[in-house]
## 1
Amino acid sequence: MASKNMMKNAIALFLTINLVFLVFTKAQAPPPQAPVCPRDSTQFLSCTNVLNLSLILINNQSVLPCCTLVTGLDAATASACICNAVRITIFNFLTINVRVNQVLRLCRIIPPLGFRCP
């Protein structure tokens, strides 16, 4: 009889300790969602002209139509919009990322650290 009570107490203690440890564990936060462009990608066709590989130099005048489109967007969203616009027209991803960063800097938007076109 005493061994049954002792066994019940041991199980109760074990479950209590497990419950305490489970309460103090921290769940991993879900990864952030990829930014989604709130505007239609056809509006960003002027950005694809700026990002054309035949352009040697991107300057303020050539990027102005694109800058007016990304004004008011945060850096991640602006990058996503430009990447969506050029995804079909250009296939060299390294060049896309470099050019997107150049365009964002000319628009006075600091590109997100480590941003890559999806």
Note: The chain has a mean pLDDT of 75.
## 2
Amino acid sequence: AIMTFTCHNNHVSQVRHERGKRLWFDVSEVPVDETIVNAELRLYQNANYTLRLPTTYTVTIYLVLLDGSQKELEYVDSINTTTGNEGWLLFNMTGPLTNWVVFPKTNRGLYLSVHAANRLSHEMQPEDIGIVLAGDRESEKQPFMVGFFKTIGVNNKKRNRKTRELHRRKKSDTESSYPRNPFSDPESLWSTRSCQMQSLYVSFRDLDWQDWIIAPDGYHAYYCKGECNFPLNAHMNATNHAIVQTLVHLMHNEVPKPCCAPTKLSPISVLYFVYEKNVILKKYKNMVVKSCGCH
């Protein structure tokens, strides 16, 4: 299975370095019994030819630790880049994601640090070398994390049932004191433009079918509408194919985005005339949209 996670940022108020960015990911929807095969953080860098020498910079990702220990930041990964580079920067996030899923209370996010390769003490703003941050206008270049999971079998699921129940109880106990997202309200993340179900009532009279349909007079059919923009969150019911397609779309614009379409349909029963004499009650499949998703 593949899951993507949108990014939220904020300044790290309790960390000494002020010229960096805080990146936070809500991973609470990852089942605790999923095996994490790999995880990546991706940051987009626009080319910036306005900066003078030095042209080589180091981008470093740290794990934020605010648990009372003396160490405030823990090194995760780093990469060297130049001001002329254009494209995605990839960082290994397997360790932090695994830790956040097992111990959700430790999820204090990441710290992004940028400095000249030969001046480690001089920290810069990520935007200075063209890195796109959360909240910037370039929506398709926002930072994101992608996780690759191996789902366990049925027998192993039974074996780990107690582990899941313990995780749910632990999560429930901490929800009141520890917010899922310490930087923003999760409800505000919902976009009315995202793929979702819309109301639609179909009147058989409007279709001029009242002469042969006895009942019902109409029904609530609903329909799917909205965008399938990256990242595809859990409420979008995206398939693995759709998630991969959005990743490819980020690299190659000629590949279209996934489409918003029904993921579940239900039947309705219709009473109607046949040859003006016989009456038949028939159930028609796939008539009502029950849920929508990106495909």
Note: Residues 202 and 219 are 5 Å apart (CA to CA).
## 3
Amino acid sequence: MRAFAAVARRRSFTQAAQELLITQPALSRTVGQLEAALGVRLLDRSSRGAALTDTGAEFLVHAERTLAAFDAALAAARHESALRLGFSWLLPDPWAQQSIARFERDTGARLELVRCDDPLVALDRQGVDVALVRGGKPVGGAVRTVHLYDERRVAVHAREEPAGGGREGSRGTPPQAVPDVVRWQDAPEWTLVVNTASGTTGPWCWPDGDGPHRYVETANFDEWLESVAAGRGLGVVPDVAERRIHHPALRFRPLTGAPPSPVRLVYRTETGTGSPLLRRFLDAALEAAVTCTHAGEA
């Protein structure tokens, strides 16, 4: 099951074998044995890699939950004390460092950092115990949220203005250059690149439909970053990216009139009521949020 999950995550037998430190033929045999035992095909194999079948995608959800529960049982049996924090990109600083230090000092436990494209999916599948979520996108069902503070948004675009850049003129005219200061009220003129999994700015920011006229969707932060760098459109991101991303093809601009972007911790309702470690981490996180220099920024 773990072998199948690795191939499903990597979409490649070669990369999954490297991750698991086994040979590719051995990995292929292991996955084949699982498929034979189940009597179904979980993966479509081709020269380009491996893709989940519909049955495989459904099985993966249950497999990841089972593996997470098994790992948790092992940790309990070994008396390991750890809490898993899921995040998608660029943990806020200095909040993260202060929160981790306080939590580990006060509890003697370890905070494990788990990078995932969509922390909420990882939380639902019990791959993490608590998720750091940016932006105001609805988080759904049986979860609770803790608001930490707000981040300021900035705009970002490609340094070289390709055809069809961040702002487009009327049909038949060349695109307008991105101004030195971008205005939120000009959103209808944008082609906005959106990270649908973990982005902070997307169609949900304009529930009345008065936002950008065109969206370019990407599946994770890295795709979003490189799509903006390739000139697919304008990006909007918390200002932590401006401080910590040094991409030669990107230029950041001030963004006026934009609402703040909230930073939240999200956890499963049933976990919060029975986990002393989670409660201690929430306390450390809130304390760090108050003392961070950028806490509460709009």
Note: The longest strand covers residues 143-151.
## 4
Amino acid sequence: MYLATTGRRDAPPRPTGARRRVPGTVLVLGTVSLVTDVSSEMVTAVLPLYLVLGLGLSPLQFGLLDGLTTGATALVRLLGGAGADRGGRHKQVAGLGYALSACSRLGLLLAGGATGWIAGALAADRLGKGVRTAPRDALITLHSPPEDLGRAFGTHRAMDTTGALLGPLAAFALLWATAEAYETVFAVSFCVGAFGVLVWLLLVPGRPRDRERPRDQKRAQGPGETRDPGRTQGPGAARGPRRAQGPGRWRDDLDAPQKTPVAPRARGGLLAVPRSPAYRRIVLCAALLGAATVGDSFLYLLLQRRLDLDATWFPFLPLGAAAVYLLLAVPAGRLADRLGRRRPLLYGHGALLLAYGLLLAPVPGAATLVGVLALLGIFYAATDGVLMALTGPFLTEGRQAGGLAVVQTAQALARLGAAVAFGAVWTASGPETALVAALLALAAALVCASRLLPAAPERTRP
């Protein structure tokens, strides 16, 4: 049972003693994410440049495509979370998502330049990501102590971001070595993704077994204590009711092997999510902040226009933000565990607000480039895993994946609307007007979130 605190303390109490290590399961999950991100980013590194400059899409069209890519997985996230919670099948459902993303690389390899096939392959990749995200994050929650969730998610996100850094570098190295043979990139991407699926199947455990046992059953047995608390085994002990087993045959019910009782778990489902007001406020804040978040691709396009960067440098812009994210993800998670998870989440969106302002300010080009990429990396380091760590303690047993999926879906749908709206305003009134509108919207969302975000719950002591 959890009770929400009402004071300023918004991180679970940390036990004294030596600092615990990151659970091995989290490291394995991070390894799979690293390998999968190498495979994914090998393909997606040049998509914004290709779609806008190569195919000539307008900002509105690009906003629709970018938003739909992010938001189309909303229902799949819910289905993946619900399916994982039913019977505790987090490993199986997430593994299906990883396999779907890996197979999408084969679709790109066989597309032969056909736009429809390429769109279908990219959709399959996004569907795979939508299916696997909530069950994977639920596994992190299940295998990590509540007081260390920030560090656990930060470690996972840092390893994930390492893959995001290596993927584009690998893709451009292959293109340079093979005279721009994109089929080679797709083939290598598929092989890397298949290796990630193999690691998942062989090394990732399922649910921790001790969580399925009642707390009373986990206590150590003292001298003279019987293993079954409901059975007395002394010589003169009273025995349970007797049942007839046939003519002249009787047996004691307690002579039969007794199954260890299992604590009841809530059944997962699309609507079977925690009903606590604190959890609902987290969902609302995720949607509010997501609705004021401009997609990364738009920010990179704004940088390219502002600085008049050569097209060959465009794919390397995400690497700058990813490098900052990689450096700060684990420290941000540890800081969130110590100081509370509300403040890093708000400060991270404040960094994004500064990035918007920097793009509007008359600052020299180099300073704008470094500042925007650094602030974008800070934004992701302080918000991505921290939001999941803030949500995790509010989720009841058996609803971890579904509860996280609802938060992620609310955020994805809100970002879909933000991308479409930003692209529409850009097309109608220009990029500066669109960026000013986004800045004002994010400032308002931050004010609302600072008042709505709950403190983390504390465990009640027996």
Note: Residues 1-11, 210-269 have pLDDT under 50 and may be disordered.
